Amino acid sequence: MSSVRSVLSLLSIALWWAMSASAPLPEYSGDPELNHFIHKNREFAFRIKKDVAKIRELMRKAFNIISDSELMLMQEFLGIPQVDLSLCHADPCDMAGCFNQIRAGLHTYHGYFSHIKEILPSFAGHMGSLQVDVSNLSSNLQQQMQERGLTVVTYPQMESQDLPSFLQKEREIGSYLALGKFQKFLEMTLRALRHCSS
Questions:
Q1: 3-state secondary structure 77-132
Q2: Where are the alpha helices (DSSP H) in the chain?
Q3: Contacting residues for 65 by C-beta, under 8 A, at least 6 apart
Q4: Which residues form the signal peptide (predicted)?
Q5: Cα 165 versus chain centre, distance
Q6: How many CB atoms lie under 10 A from the CB of residue 62?
Q7: How many Cα atoms are found within 13 Å in the side-chain-facing hemisphere of 176?
Q8: What was the pLDDT predicted at 13?
Q9: pLDDT of residue 162
Q10: Are the C-beta atoms of residues 34 and 150 closer than 8 Å to each other?
Q11: What is the mean pLDDT of residues 184-188?
């Protein structure tokens, strides 16, 4: 009798394992259109992040920056704000709130790049390319929100605003550190998009 129970237990475990293995992973379950959108734009954000890393390396060499660690005190002094993505951590994902926060961050950095383009002419082309990518990513999010009937926040133009204080104090280092903040923002955006697809 005990051997029969053992066999039944083993069969139950095997059946459970087979069902678990065949179940879709959380990232790919749910709405196929949403998952396709998330996957496509995560790839886009990752490509932007790689481009930012290349630009920062060019700036590092141009401005004779040894490493980021030597700029920690300078970063605290300049007080470059970190974009808020707190709504992207909600469980389940607050898609409207999260996407609006991502778009607000993209809008902020688009404005920063406009100023950097003016104060560092040698990097104007790079900043212009980043602005195009940032605008396209924001537009992609907006379109997805509109298709789902979510509330879309409209932002005013930032180009007309004053030069941020951190760029007034340190144009070169401030620009380099702002791009570092943008890299971290993109990393958080990648995690947020993954979270919203699960």
A1: HHCCCCCCCHHHHCCCCCHHHHHHHHHHHHHHHHHHHHHHHHHCHHHHHHHHHHHH
A2: 2-22, 32-62, 72-78, 95-119, 124-147, 165-169, 171-196
A3: 59, 71, 173, 176
A4: 1-22
A5: 24
A6: 13
A7: 24
A8: 44
A9: 80
A10: no
A11: 96
Condensed to tens digits (0 to 9), the pLDDT of residues 115-146 reads 999 999 999 999 999 999 999 999 999 999 99
- Characterise 16 by phi-psi region: left (phi > 0), alpha (psi -120 to 50), beta (else): alpha
CATH number given to 26-196 = 1.20.1250.10
Spell out the residues 6+ positions from residue 55 whose beta carbon is closer than 8 angstroms to its own. Answer: 123, 126, 130, 179
State both tokens at 194. Answer: 């993954």
Q: Which residues contact 89 (CB under 8 A, 6 or more apart)?
A: 192, 195
Domain boundaries, the chain: 26-196
Q: Yes or no: say if 140 and 16 are a contact pair by the CB < 8 Å rule.
A: no
In tens, the pLDDT along 17-50 reads 344 333 333 333 468 888 899 999 999 999 999 9
Q: What integer is the mean pLDDT of 78-104?
A: 92
pLDDT at residue 30, as a whole number: 63
Q: Residues with Cβ < 8 Å from 9, sequence gap 6 or more?
A: none
Q: What is the pLDDT of residue 196?
A: 86
Query: Residues 176, 65: contact at Cβ < 8 Å?
Result: yes
